[in-house]
Amino acid sequence: MNKLQDKVVIITGGAGGIGSGIAKAMVKEGAIVAIVDLNEVTGKTMEKELQVVSPKSMFLQANLMDRENLGQIINTVVEKYGKLDVLVNNAHASKQATLEETTQADLDLSFGTGFYPTFYLMQAALPHLKESKGNVINFASGAGLAGHETQGAYAAAKEAIRGISRVAANEWGRFGINVNLISPIANSPGVQAWAKAQPEYYETVKSKIPMGRFGDVEEDIGRVAVFLASEDSRYITGQTIMVDGGSIMLR
Ligand SMILES: NC(=O)c1ccc[n+]([C@@H]2O[C@H](COP(=O)([O-])OP(=O)(O)OC[C@H]3O[C@@H](n4cnc5c(N)ncnc54)[C@H](O)[C@@H]3O)[C@@H](O)[C@H]2O)c1
Question: Is 120 noted as a catalytic residue in this protein?
Answer without folding.
Answer: no
